[in-house]
Amino acid sequence: MGVKHGREYEEILTDLTAALDMIPDSYMFFHMESEEWKALQDSEKREVQEALAEDLFYALGSEPVIHVGSGIVIHDPDTHRINILIGEEEMTFVSLI
């Protein structure tokens, strides 16, 4: 189903993919090991991050908080954004409108 949004879906995915790049171990979401991640070419890493962004966009529609490696991705419907956090510190957010 995904989250409600007013921006173009592709723009949101581009921003979300870039935000997920900030989580150093986001590959753990797919149960990958560090060695597996390091062995991927940059284009393959980009494909994995794009797939992760798509999966999260739809999953956040029914589950507002999802752990991604050492990060947490949170859908905040009140502010119309997706927050990406590590620990207590907000790293970035993606606007949905």
Overview features:
97 residues, alpha+beta, four-stranded antiparallel sheet, 3 helices, 24% strand
Query: Total helix count?
Result: 3
Q: Please provide the count of β strands.
A: 4
Radius of gyration from CA coordinates: 13 Å
What is the terminal separation in angstroms?
17 Å
Tell me the layout of helices and strands.
Layout: H1 9-20, H2 34-39, H3 42-59, E1 65-68, E2 71-76, E3 81-86, E4 89-95
Helix pairs in contact: 1-3
Give structural notes:
- The chain has one domain (9-95).
- 37% of the residues lie in helices and 24% in strands.
- The chain has three helices and four strands, in the order αααββββ.
- It has a four-stranded antiparallel β-sheet with strand order 1-2-3-4, covered by helices on one side.
- The two termini are 17 Å apart.
